[in-house]
What we know:
271 residues, TIM Barrel, eight-stranded parallel barrel
Amino acid sequence: xxxxxxxxxxxxxxxxxxxxxxxxxxxxxxxxxxxxxxxxxxxxxxxxxxxxxxxxxxxxxxxxxxxxxxxxxxxxxxxxxxxxxxxxxxxxxxxxxxxxxxxxxxxxxxxxxxxxxxxxxxxxxxxxxxxxxxxxxxxxxxxxxxxxxxxxxxxxxxxxxxxxxxxxxxxxxxxxxxxxxxxxxxxxxxxxxxxxxxxxxxxxxxxxxxxxxxxxxxxxxxxxxxxxxxxxxxxxxxxxxxxxxxxxxxxxxxxxxxxxxxxxxxxxxxx
Length: 271
């Protein structure tokens, strides 16, 4: 059982939902990333999605695009992202870390070198936005051989056949994109998400996390009522932008703590 699978098993046994925040490595600076990751954990994060900055992040809206631009301007690249994970692991050996990004940096580094480097750094999962499941069976197998979960996206337009392919190749959890569009865009339709999740669970056979459109404790609670995990990214980046580097960890921790408490109120054991 992978570290991510074990985390979900513990949460499900306790009747709790996973909280998965996203930040971009290197934003607002390379030295700020590990303190921000620790702030996420201190606030109650169960898994961290760490964005690998890329110059053409086609699935990301303006907020996360700006984060990538700041990180790239500060000299971030995939090698330095792995160094950040290594540094975080020196402080925290338990919280699963998922790298989320695009194929180009991995291809530039070389798949075998990337997988070896990710495993050595302590990466627990990899989500590559533009690697469709039918074209990366070998890549997913390499990750699994290195005890890293290959994680895939599903969308409202995903066919049942594609969902079943994701169930074959993926592991850990599924990231369901609740909106057609980019991160930070649109209005989250709770009823549409609720109608979709049972079919996804049946097809993939693993926990389902929902992201895109989650802005606060109230929207996180509504998703937590129907999903196994809540993924939040753009709102955290906005907090970092508003706070500035020095104040960002405290602001981010407070936001995550508020969402954590809201999700925990859904537990059968909550008062």
